[in-house]
Amino acid sequence: MLKRIASLTLWALLLSLLGRLYGAPDNPVRTTNTVELVLQPLGREKEKRNPFDSITATLLVDTNQHLKTSNGLSFALRLQNVSQGDVALQHPLDGLQVLVSRDGIPHSLPHGDAPRSLIHTKGKEVQRSFTVLRMLRDGVSASLQGSELDETITMKANEIVDYMLRIDKLRRYESGLKGGTNVAKALSIGKYEISVILPLISASGNSSRIVRSDRIEVLVSDTIP
Q1: Distance between CA atoms of 190 and 110, rounded to whole angstroms?
Q2: pTM beyond cutoff 0.85
Q3: CA-CA-CA-CA torsion for 145, 150, 151, 152, nearest 10 degrees?
Q4: Is residue 187 within 8 Å of residue 14, measured between CB atoms?
Q5: Distance from C-alpha of 171 to C-alpha of 151, rounded to nearest angstrom
Q6: How many whole angstroms separate alpha carbon 31 and alpha carbon 207?
Q7: Is the dihedral of CA 188, 175, 131, 192 positive or negative?
Q8: Which of 77, 104, 91, 35 is nearest to 167 (CA)?
Q9: In this predicted structure, what is the pLDDT of residue 13?
Q10: CA angle at 94 for the pair 146 and 101, rounded to the nearest 5°
């Protein structure tokens, strides 16, 4: 039990540190209508050869969204295996960190479960900080329930996997008479910036790579684009 708690604590600290270090990339905010950004390795990992060189990750975001149509802030994560062999990964959404600010103020997503590889809960569907709407494998809908129960995913040679995701609520620190608290509220109209940090970890846990995106500016309004 103590080892499990220590692992969860270390994982939380790592994600928090990455968010602080890389939550505001040097590159300017992208503002085109529809954006597809390929995630890039962090820091020195750019210089290393890695088994995950064959896996590309892309963040896809519509930068003009209608709140009542999307019911939140929708985005997609695309993984592509550009190699000629199969690649087995720990579930990529387990470690996905989404960084969001609204009108220039950083917000956080509701708490989700820790990666299953840390808490050893095979066959258990995890509670995520975002909603998983749909999964496509080479453009064909896959069983979402089945994939969410799996701790790992095997990508076939040249396969493309798309996850359609949505942010429903955001948390912001608010002060009060009895101190401060993080209050989760439904996403509302405003100007947002979104970026992601994605750990890619082999199914065996023997190799890994962390990639991240630049920020993308998203306008969520009550006007249909």
Answers
A1: 19
A2: no
A3: -120
A4: no
A5: 27
A6: 35
A7: positive
A8: 77
A9: 46
A10: 125
The conformation of residue 122, written as its DSSP 8-state character, comes to T
Q: How far apart are CA 138 and CA 165, in angstroms?
A: 17
How many domains are there within the chain?
1
Q: Is the Cβ–Cβ distance between 184 and 100 less than 8 Å?
A: no
Residue 88 token pair: 């087995």
**Spatial CA neighbour of 201 closest among 73, 43, 42, 95:** 95
**pLDDT truncated to tens, each residue of the chain (225 aa)?**
444 444 444 444 454 444 444 444 444 344 447 799 999 998 765 555 666 788 999 999 999 999 988 889 999 999 999 989 999 999 999 889 999 999 888 888 988 776 666 655 555 667 889 999 999 999 998 887 767 778 889 999 999 999 999 999 998 755 555 544 567 889 999 999 999 999 999 888 788 899 999 999 999 998 776
For residues 211 and 41, the answer to whether their CB atoms sit within 8 Å is yes
User: Parallel, antiparallel, or unpaired for β 64-66 and 216-221?
Assistant: parallel
Domain that holds residue 166: 2-221
Cα 220–chain centre separation: 19
Say which residue the tokens 């950004």 belong to: 37
Rounded-to-integer distance, Cα 194 and Cα 177, Å: 32
